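$ ./design --mode recover --in tokens.txt
reading tokens...
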């Protein structure tokens, strides 16, 4: 299955949030938008799309719209997607290497 980054929008505040990306899974013909990219202390991680809800305590919580039910599959997806994002950003800076990454996810 090929994973391709179709867009990345930087977003920086005083948080770990660095931006949002869209990922195209070419084999099933699926695009996942609004994946959040976080970074702290040199570590990067992804957060799948989520919607806010109001907790009983009055605070704000997040409910995931998509979720991998196997942690290992999410970790593999995250690793391959971050690799594809790096390739996408290199291409954006003038390096025309292919931005598609073909992992063995499923």
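writing sequence...
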């Amino acid at each position: 299955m090929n994973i391709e980054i179709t867009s990345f929008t930087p977003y920086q505040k005083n948080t770990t949030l660095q931006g949002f990306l869209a990922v195209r899974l070419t084999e099933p013909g699926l695009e996942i938008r609004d994946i959040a990219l976080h970074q702290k202390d040199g570590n990067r991680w992804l957060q799948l799309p989520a919607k806010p809800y109001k907790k009983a305590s009055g605070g704000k919580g997040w409910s995931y719209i998509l979720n991998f039910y196997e942690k290992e599959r999410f970790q593999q997806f995250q690793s391959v997607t971050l690799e594809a994002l790096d390739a996408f950003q290199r291409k954006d800076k003038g390096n025309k290497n292919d931005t598609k990454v073909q992992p063995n996810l499923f």
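exit 0
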